[in-house]
Amino acid sequence: MIRKMTVEDIPDVQQIAHTAWQHTFQQHIPTEVIKAYIERTYSDLMLKKQLEKTMVLLAIDELGNSIGYLSYTPIDVDGESELTALHMLPGYWNSGYEEALLKEALGTLQEAINVDVYVDQNDIALQDFYAKQGFNFVESFPELFEGVSVNILHYSLPITQPAHT
Question: Residue 29 region, left (φ>0) first, then alpha (ψ -120 to 50), else beta?
Answer without folding.
Answer: beta
